[in-house]
Predict the 3D structure of the following.
Amino acid sequence: INLITREAENNGFSVGGAPGTAGAHQVSGEGTYTCGDLRVIGGAQLHQRPDWNTTYWFNNPIPDDPFAAGVPSVQDATIRDHSRGAFAGVTYKNLTVMSSFTEWRTAAFVRGTVGESHWKRGFADVGYALEPSDQWRMNLNATYTKNLFDIEEFPHIGRDSHETLLEWANFVNPTARDQVTFGVLHRQIRGHETFFGLGFPLTISEGHRAASAAYAQIDHRLNQQERLPRPPAAQVHDVKAGGGGPQRDHHRYGDQE
């Protein structure tokens, strides 16, 4: 859904779809709403490709593999490809909130067992922009991402992980030819894996880690036509969401109006 880089400029909505053979179809829709400083945009998509019925041949290179016991060497398999997703974004003055969801189902082949894998991902971000002075702009951001994965058939597992990211980014123009970019961020990742093959959930692995970082960058324009190369600052988002969303300074230093 290519809506993250768009802004709501008027009120309206659109819906479209396309049918295909053997049950294939695609449906999508999007809408925008504005009222004063409030801007809302959202959309959703649904995709389904035809199921692929095929013959699966399994030649296990491991003799007497206990995890593949009883698995036939030739099986009829159905490979599915179904997906859906949605996005919503709200901007009010300097505050921006956005969220997205994606899901995908397809075939899985593990040690000769034919099954179906199920993937889900959710994302949410809250950002706020401030201007302490004419020469100083800053962005505050909090981002949360959650991932889910499971296979009901062998190996009967489910995985659940999430990531939290906090960032404070600053853009300071001490002179007409200089810009200083600096900020700090903190990230935390946590997840676990569950085994369901015994008739009850059993956590078989779990872990987490956290990290913090700081970055700084100085740009100086030599003249109106050229300036020193500017490598991207670490972890500063390059997505323009309007308002206080995760974004690099839109009117970047050295750009001409």
Q: What stands out?
A: The first strand starts at residue 12 and ends at 19.
